[in-house]
Each structure stands twice: as C-alpha cells, then as structure tokens.
Amino acid sequence: MKKSIILKMLLCFILLIPIMTLSNSLLITKAATPQIGKVDLENGTLNVRNGPGINNKKIGFLRNGAKVNVYNQTKSGWSEIRYNKKKAYISTQYLRFDLKMSLAQAKSITDKVISMQRKTWERNYTKKQIYSIITPGYTTAYIDKYFKQQMRTAGKNKNGTQLYHVIETEIWGYAIDTFDWKAEYQPKKPAISYNKKNEKEYVVVSQFLLNEESGDHTSRLYLSRSNPKKNWKVYKYTRKYGK
Question: pTM value?
C-alpha cells in the first residue's frame, strides 16, 4: 500500500516538472513602478501580442520611437504594456530604457577616453603601441578608422618597426573635441543621454561648440559597455556643422 502511494506521488512529481519548467521560463519580474521604455528599431514596426510569446495573437504594432509604460518583464524576453487600454506584450529586445547620469559621472568617463586619445599625439608610436594605448576606451572598429585617417608614417625605430604620428592637419576627423563642462566658453553645458537596451548601457554626450577655426558645430560622443564591471568604450563620434 505504502509503495503504491509513493509511486503515485513520484508519478505526479514527474508530470509536474514540465509545468514547473514552463512556469519558470515565463516568470515575471514586477517593477515597483512602471518603467518608461522607448521602441528602438532600425526599420519596420514592432508587433504587439496578447501574450508573452511569438505564438500569441498579434493585436497591433508600434512605430520606432514610441514610448510605452512597462509594468512587468518575463525572463523569456517579453515586456507587459497597455495597448488600447488592455494588457499586451512586446519583445523586450527592441526597447530602450532611459537612465540618469550626472554631469560629473559623464565628465569622468569622457575625460578618461579623450586623454587616452591625446596620448597617441605625444610622440611617434608603433601601430601596436597606439592600439594598446586606446583599446581600453575604444572599440576596435573605431580604432581602425582613427588609425587610418589620423596617422601618418614617421620613420622606424631601432628595431626597424614602422612608427606613426598623428597628422597635425587632420585633427578634426576621429579626434574628439574637448567638452566645456562648465560652459565657460560655450553657450551651454554638454547634454547627456543615458539608457539601457538588452542589458547593455549606452551614453551619448553632446555639446554645441563655437569654433572660428573649424566652424560652429555640435559634437556627439557615443559610448557603451556590456555591464557595470566593463569599461565604457567609444564606438562612434560625429560633428554636425551649423546651428
């Protein structure tokens, strides 16, 4: 009799395993207050569904830049929103969440990466040395472009290795402007945009700069990091001339 009861309990437990696994995969993380997310797409629109999964019915769509209140998130990558005043779900991977960063924090980050770049201007270096100096603060793709546009050959060292030096007349390309954090010489202090997407953090620092030599322009520096333990790295830099 006891064996029969034990076998029945064991069978029930085995049958419950798939249900427990499914439940865990859809486990919802509830936010204390709704988070504001912004739809971030390269093209097209974002499907809205009546449940957390691609097999659920499509009930609408959102365009790029649309703002939504996110009430809960599932571990399987879906965010609960309200669509036409009803509960609905969209894929979390296409959402950005705005965060806050102080001017002091942004200054510390940008000062660090700019100082790395400025160091490559100090004297002649081998290509390997240049990459070693700025790799902690720049993506390889950015360094490749910087090296190609900003560096010229400058003889060889005693071992016969090619040396390079910054091209003095080409300092405007991938060379980053210095930001005026106190607005001592510029109309306004830098603006900061800080957000997270797919657990990766992004920050953009921008400032309109008055410059009689190169022309008035808006300077924008783009950085990212995969998690808080990693270094911030520059992946893009732009200048837009004119007001």
Answer: 0.80
